[in-house]
Amino acid sequence: MREKENAIDETMHILVERLNHALHIEYTLIIHYPYIAKFIHDEEARNLTIELGTASVHHADVIASIISELGGKPDWSFETLPSEIDLKSFFQNQIAREKRAMELHRGSAAMVPSTPYGKTLGALAEEEEEHIKNAEHIVLLLHNQQQGA
Ligand SMILES: [Fe+2]
Fold it and tell me: Domains in the chain: how many in total?
């Protein structure tokens, strides 16, 4: 019995670490999205950016809540923006972060498959696929805008 309890504790400890890692890689820049959106002239790209920011804030809230419920402490770490922002590379970097977060959520969901957390994390992973598509579309729109298309 004691061994089983220890194994559950260990799983939850690893899960909290993974969730905090996801918070760190995906969410360190989301706070800047409304600011970044101001520099995007293409209306569709601007709206997608605001949408992505809102969706990511929601994800961060879900992740932070699970961490707290598991007895952990959400490790918020927002990064400052560089003074010169290249929008295209900003979003290319964000795509890589979204992909990493998706893999983490998928793996975390698989750690607790028959629990409500497993279901929630699986749903977040699926939503990350949409975030990736949206971020890729933003890059395409920014590229077209640069080309004067
Ligand atoms: Fe995301």
Answer: 1
